[in-house]
Write a structure and sequence with these properties.
alpha+beta, Peptide Deformylase, two-stranded antiparallel ribbon, 7 strands
């Protein structure tokens, strides 16, 4: 069983390594990640969030896209941005509005190593950007202005009775 790592865990701040082996172990990992994401009622889940130092994430936008993205690269972003409320399984229970590109094009590999491209907008584009950030050691809170980030982290700390400053 996979465990979702929460803010403060070192792996969430590391740049993940490329996946080199497309084998049955990778397929098992992808299936376990989908199960954990579904169990947590999430839209996406990245390798580092489950303690796996690999460039992989899974997404289910509940609108027809349920897919694994291995070694993903966002190759195009729109100039237009939109603001939506965003949350994260690694910072559970807190949400904030965040501007992100309205549309993106991502290139990735599937579990067999086959390259594919996907154009996305709306929630799917947001999820792709959010999960890709995880692969680079970036949390959505990092993208907030300082005041909003501090407010969000204080709320999280209070809810989880953490020592002040333990998650930064």
């Amino acid at each position: 069983m996979l465990e979702i790592y929460t803010i403060g865990e070192e792996i969430l701040r590391k740049k993940a390594r490329r996946v080199e082996n497309f084998d049955s172990a990778l397929e098992l990992l992808v299936n376990a990640m989908f199960e954990k994401m579904d169990e947590a009622d999430g839209v996406g889940l990245a390798g580092p969030q489950v303690g796996v130092d690999l460039r992989i994430f899974v997404i289910d936008d509940h609108r027809g896209v349920r897919k694994a993205f291995i070694n993903p690269e966002i190759i195009e972003t729109s100039m237009e941005e939109c603001s939506m409320e965003e949350g994260c399984l690694s910072i559970p229970g807190v949400y904030a509005y965040l501007d992100r590109s309205e549309k993106v094009v991502v290139q990735a590999q599937d579990v067999n190593g086959k390259t594919f491209r996907l154009e996305a907008d709306d929630l799917l584009a947001r999820a792709l950007q959010h999960e890709n950030d995880h692969l680079n050691g970036v949390l959505f809170a990092d993208r907030l202005d300082e005041s909003s980030r501090n407010k969000l982290l204080r709320t999280y700390e209070k809810r989880n009775k953490l020592k002040r400053g333990s998650i930064r």
